[in-house]
């Protein structure tokens, strides 16, 4: 099936470029008609190489078209137009290898356009030259627009990843700095307690040192896991995220209602990042290090992350930091809404609702 899908475009172009050859011209000899048909088929089948060798395939379609024109008359340059789009779509401003540089691609596109228009103009077929030149130009422009959008999307993804890594690096610095500061203070207190013979106070300080060390190790392990992640994630990766949180010392449960695979990529990635940030906040700030994650996939995607630890502070005590703002921005970017705060029992809860784009 995969081969048939890949063969559909080359075969279709071959047929179009074959049946359209010499349209409107006087009858040709059987020999020239047969040769023109074979050239049209060859031009179309050259598209099989469009992914592996786009420039070679482009050159082959142009040569095939010109030869077809000389033998049997003008034909629709559908194969050339497809390859102009493919080459234009691969245009990049940065990071191109020398053989695929922007200058090389621009030259190839211009050469293909001239290869279609010039022979028609020389043959006195001005109308066909204008029409087919416009056809190739539109195909090339469409490819360049797709490349431009792809480049912008890639740049935005890179910026988001860099911002995420910078945030995690700052949190890592804060975690290590705070933890090591506490350990240093308690170590000094233990030393002074031992010096005056207060062994009970020294033991208490050592316990505090142990607790601070475990807390630092737990948070560092979690943050290092985040740094090792790939760029894109979806809801299918949510069980792995929860597993990493458990290995980092968080007692977390996951409840799923619906098919995680039935969620669009944009909503899935936003939901994944919201859960990730919520678990990070529980790990860093919740006293009990316990959480519940509930996901419901229906007409919309609903998320709820609840801190099951001991209630601390009044229900109205809500402080919005960078993590909560980031979660809210993730939800808004996916067209949804997010609310966070303490429940009536004093537990911290994050609730998000994201659209699935269904009519």
Automatic annotation (TrEMBL):
Name the chemical reaction catalysed here.
ATP + protein L-histidine = ADP + protein N-phospho-L-histidine
Gene Ontology CC entries for this record: membrane
According to its UniProt record, the EC number is 2.7.13.3
Entry's transmembrane regions: 32-48, 53-70, 76-92, 104-123, 129-148
Signal transduction histidine kinase subgroup 3 dimerisation and phosphoacceptor domain segment(s): 164-231
GO MF, one annotated term? phosphorelay sensor kinase activity
Q: Which Pfam families match?
A: HisKA_3 (PF07730)
Q: What is this protein called?
A: histidine kinase
What organism does this protein naturally occur in?
Answer: Nocardioides mesophilus
Give the classification, highest ranks: Bacteria, Bacillati, Actinomycetota, Actinomycetes, Propionibacteriales
């Amino acid at each position: 099936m995969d081969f048939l899908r890949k063969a559909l475009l080359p075969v279709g172009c071959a047929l179009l470029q074959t049946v359209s050859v010499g349209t409107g011209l006087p009858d040709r000899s059987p020999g020239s008609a047969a040769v023109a048909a074979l050239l049209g088929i060859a031009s179309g089948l050259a598209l099989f190489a469009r992914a592996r060798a786009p420039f070679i395939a482009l050159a082959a379609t142009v040569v095939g078209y010109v030869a077809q024109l000389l033998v049997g008359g003008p034909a629709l340059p559908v194969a050339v137009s497809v390859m102009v789009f493919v080459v234009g779509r691969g245009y990049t401003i940065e990071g191109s290898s020398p053989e695929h540089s922007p200058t090389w691609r621009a030259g190839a596109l211009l050469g293909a356009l001239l290869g279609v228009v010039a022979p028609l103009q020389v043959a006195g077929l001005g109308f066909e030259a204008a029409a087919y030149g416009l056809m190739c130009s539109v195909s090339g422009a469409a490819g360049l627009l797709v490349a431009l959008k792809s480049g912008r999307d890639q740049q935005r993804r890179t910026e988001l990843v860099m911002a995420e890594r910078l945030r995690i690096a700052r949190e890592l610095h804060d975690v290590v700095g705070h933890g090591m500061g506490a350990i240093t203070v308690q170590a000094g207190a233990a030393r002074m307690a031992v010096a005056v013979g207060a062994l009970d106070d020294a033991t208490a300080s050592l316990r505090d040192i142990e607790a601070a060390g475990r807390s630092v190790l737990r948070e560092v392990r979690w943050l290092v896991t985040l740094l090792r992640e790939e760029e894109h994630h979806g809801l299918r990766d949510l069980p792995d995220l929860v597993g990493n949180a458990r290995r980092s010392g968080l007692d977390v449960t996951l409840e799923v209602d619906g098919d995680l695979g039935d969620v669009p990529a944009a909503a899935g990635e936003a939901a994944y990042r919201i859960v990730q940030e919520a678990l990070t906040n529980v790990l860093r700030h919740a006293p009990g290090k316990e959480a519940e994650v509930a996901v419901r996939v229906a007409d919309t995607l609903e998320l709820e992350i609840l801190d099951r630890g001991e209630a601390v502070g009044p229900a109205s005590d809500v402080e919005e930091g960078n993590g909560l703002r980031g979660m809210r921005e993730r939800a808004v970017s996916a067209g949804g809404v997010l609310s966070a705060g303490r429940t009536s029992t004093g537990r911290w809860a994050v609730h998000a609702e994201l659209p699935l784009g269904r009519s």
